[in-house]
Specification:
- By secondary structure, the protein is an alpha/beta fold.
- The strands form four sheets. Strands 7-9-10-6-11 form a five-stranded parallel sheet, with helices on both faces. Strands 5-4-3-8 form a four-stranded mixed sheet.
- Strand 9, helix 7 (209-217) and strand 10 (222-227) form a beta-alpha-beta unit.
- Helix 1 (20-28) crosses helix 17 (416-431).
- The chain is elongated and about 130 Å long.
């Protein structure tokens, strides 16, 4: 138990100081002095491509790793480091004199076979029921295999692991000297592939594809896997050797009983041992417990010679029973937990109640004085281990198989809720203490998680808040994730919004380190929303930084993803030249054949300046300057097309007609809009030509005036030149005058000549009888009856005065 009352270092920040006195007093008892508040341990780790700063106060911060740091495999441990690591992987030494270990009987054949197979590099699955002595056999085989592999013997515990990822990280930490690095999956697989060791994996709980993944990831390792028969079997492709452990024979069971009691058995005890062997199928654990029952019976029957002269009850906690204690019944021998628990010390019984409340997990013996309230309660673990009620699991102890059920039936779980709440408050104080390293917290991970599951919501939030940073710093990330999820649920039930935001932020950071981007985005967005509601600026900034990394990773994943493998055409020009001629041969006069070419499309380019103008034109000269510029634009010039397209005359007509129609629509729309917004109140809406006449077409004959007018308008000045018939921007040559010519004074003389209406004329019809000023305005080209060729249908003289 850590009771160091040291002062905090200046670089450390105080966190949860107000909770520490209450938790410490609840854990150590009412007479204990309040301890100073736990301080925050800020630890920096390298997690793949990220640098993770574990900050218990505001939440972990994650940022990209700086170039040139990390990325290289660390050095492997030498023999001395491996020995120290192997000693740390064993259960802790218990206070008091060391109890003799039970002998390993009738396992010589299996032991030799396992050593022989492992020496050849074969992996073996050792299957046996709970209590068959698998752990003892693994220890013996590990001692025989020392020096066979270049990386030595590695001991791991598979209890609670259903996937291979966490076991691979544990193997990596056992072989490499990487105390502040947790590699990503790609780096992890590349480094564990070079490990050549004999791995002793006890309490295996996974099989099938998960076990195949573990074996494929470490091809240079030889595994000795200890599992129970109900564990999922490996796949057919795993190529594992199977070794089954059975029960002991009658002679071996009697020998084990005599070694446990320290004396030879009587005839009655021999017969009782034979019946017990038949009922328990010869499991060694049952005879370890039976030997404890015989020792307790000897003590109660005053069988020791040195105690004959002592007065009963003087040096004992309770008076001796004068009645003779008979042998246990066969039922009590097969399920001895209740009888054994009734004869142990009070501190041991209190420890059993705590273990029942924690689901069978026994806390470290250093925690028992604070949890039980007895300064000598740390000796209870050795007492219970000698009775066979505890069994080693990795670096800790837990109740043996079947003991939890038997104690629950005996009433030891009646106070489970109170015991779990006490354990949760104690671990909340202990995990947040400055003197407790993250590695020690990781060794108590199962007990902490069990206390978290059985505590109330307030104690669960407090424990998860202090234990989560310690698990993150110790690189025990499976326990880190489980604590965060339990804490988030408890905070939601308790209504602690700030704590709930913290847990969601940590879950998002954890998912980002593991490469689960969808989960990371969901958790970080939930955290940002909660912290935004609380106006937590620092937490919101940290969450947005992590979310930005998620976005960057998502973009990088999209960029590196392979595209769809579709086969596009070789080039656009090849597609046109191969498709268009085939269409033109089959239907030379249909307008649909003109849709395939792409080159003639820029002929509609003159529309762009009119639409893209910042302000609408205010005069007719600006309108025609936009529609018919003096300088021909490159887009209007004849485009460069392949030879087959230039020779195809029917294909060019629809294109010119489409361009003429587009220009007509633009000019009419602009003129109408100008007429509606004009300043002259006497000007009609039409804006051009007489009010009672329509605009004739170029081919209309009759009328001595200027073509395109009513016939009474004067001719243009002699100095005005007619527009060139070859103007490329004019859809009808000879009908469009120069847009920059000077405007004539409008004449208000009404037209006396009725308009000439021809079937081909589609000009606007005047509806007003008011006179209008006449100007030299270009006439729009026909729309409804297009000419078969781009040449004009009528000939206009170069000098308009000649027709007058």
């Amino acid at each position: 138990m850590d009771r160091t009352q040291g002062q905090a270092e200046p670089v450390e920040q105080t966190a949860a100081a107000s909770v520490a006195p209450a938790v410490a007093s609840a854990a150590a008892g009412p007479a204990a002095a309040p301890a100073p508040g736990p301080v925050a341990r800020i630890v920096t780790l390298t997690a793949g491509d990220f640098t993770l700063t574990v900050n218990p106060v505001d939440g972990s911060e994650i940022e990209p790793r700086r170039p040139g740091t990390g990325g290289t495999a660390p050095a492997k441990r030498d023999a001395a480091d491996r020995a120290a690591r192997d000693a740390a992987a064993r259960p802790p030494a218990l206070p008091g004199p060391a109890a003799p270990a039970p002998p390993l009987l009738a396992r010589e054949e299996e032991r030799e076979r396992l050593v022989r197979l492992l020496g050849r590099g074969r992996s073996v699955r050792l299957t046996g029921p709970a209590g068959s002595g698998r752990s003892a056999l693994l220890d013996a085989v590990g001692a025989d295999c020392t020096g066979l592999a270049p990386d030595g013997v590695v001991r791991l515990s598979g209890y609670g692991h259903q996937q291979a990822g966490e076991l691979l990280h544990a193997l990596y930490a056992a072989v490499y000297e990487a105390s502040a690095e947790r590699p990503e999956r790609t780096q992890l697989l590349a480094r564990v592939r070079d490990i050549g060791a004999i791995v002793l994996l006890d309490d295996l709980e996974m099989g099938g594809t998960a076990l195949d993944e573990l074996l494929r990831a470490t091809p240079e390792c030889a595994y000795l896997l200890a599992a129970t028969p109900d564990t999922r079997a490996p796949s057919d492709d795993s190529h594992l050797e199977e070794v089954f452990l059975g029960g002991l024979g009658r002679a071996d069971c009697v020998e084990l009983l005599e070694a446990g009691t320290g004396r030879p058995l009587t005839e009655e005890e021999n017969a009782w041992a034979g019946d017990l062997r038949f009922a328990s199928e010869g499991l060694p654990l049952r005879f370890v417990q039976a030997a404890a029952l015989l020792r307790q019976r000897d003590e109660r029957n005053q069988s020791s010679a040195e105690d004959d002269d002592d007065e009963p009850g003087v040096f004992e906690e309770r008076p001796r029973d004068a009645a003779f204690v008979a042998l246990p019944t066969l039922a009590e021998g097969a399920a001895p937990a209740e009888l054994l628990a009734s004869r142990v010390s009070e501190s041991a019984r209190a420890a059993l109640r705590i273990a029942c409340a924690l689901g069978g997990e026994m806390p470290h013996h250093a925690h028992l004085p604070a949890l039980v309230g007895d300064t000598h309660a740390d000796a209870a673990v050795a007492e219970l281990l000698g009775c066979g009620l505890l069994t080693p699991v990795g670096t800790r102890y837990r109740l043996a198989a079947g003991v939890v059920r038997q104690l629950e039936e005996a009433g030891f779980a009646d106070t489970a809720a109170e015991e779990a709440r006490t354990a949760a408050r104690h671990y909340a104080w202990w995990t947040g203490h400055a003197s407790v390293t993250p590695e020690r917290v990781a060794s108590e991970a199962d007990a902490v998680l069990a206390a978290l599951a059985g505590a109330d919501v307030v104690a669960a939030v407090l424990l998860a808040r202090t234990a989560a940073p310690a698990f993150a710093a110790s690189r025990h990330w499976e326990a880190w994730e489980r604590v965060l999820r339990s804490g988030a649920e408890a905070a939601r039930k308790a209504g602690e919004v700030a704590e709930q935001a913290y847990f969601h932020h940590e879950l998002g950071v954890h998912a980002l380190c593991e490469g689960r981007l969808d989960r990371a985005r969901a958790e970080l967005e939930a955290s940002i929303g909660l912290r935004g509601a609380l106006a937590d600026k620092r937490g919101t900034v940290a969450g947005r930084r992590a979310l930005a990394l998620v976005t960057d990773r998502e973009k990088a994943g999209v960029e590196v993803s392979p595209p769809l493998r579709l086969e596009p055409p070789a080039s656009a020009s090849e597609a046109v030249t191969t498709v268009v001629p085939a269409v033109s041969k089959s239907a030379p006069t249909t307008p649909m054949a003109a849709v395939a070419p792409v080159a003639p499309v820029p002929a509609v380019a003159p529309v762009v300046p009119v639409i893209g103008r910042a302000q609408a034109p205010t005069t007719l000269s600006e309108v025609f300057e936009e529609a018919f510029p003096l300088d021909p634009k490159p887009a209007v010039a004849a485009p460069v097309v392949p030879a087959p397209l230039r020779a195809a005359e029917p294909r060019r007509k629809p294109v010119l007609l489409a361009a003429a129609g587009a220009l007509t629509v633009v000019v009419l729309g602009t003129v109408v809009s100008l007429a509606m917004t004009g300043s002259d109140p006497e000007t009609p809406a039409g804006g051009v030509g007489p009010a009672s006449s329509s605009t004739p077409t170029a081919g209309t004959s009759g009328g001595a005036g200027v073509p395109g007018t009513g016939g009474n308008d004067p001719a243009p000045d002699p100095g005005t030149t007619a527009p060139d018939a070859s103007e490329p921007a004019s859809p009808e040559p000879g009908l469009s005058p120069d847009p920059n010519q000077s405007q004539r004074t409008p004449s208000r003389k009404p037209s006396s000549t009725p308009p000439s209406r021809t079937p081909s004329s589609t000009g606007p019809t005047g509806t007003s009888s008011n006179p209008e000023p006449t100007q030299s305005v270009p006439t729009t080209p026909p729309v409804s009856t297009p000419t078969p060729t781009p040449t004009p249908t009528s000939t206009t003289p170069a000098n308009p005065s000649a027709t007058a």
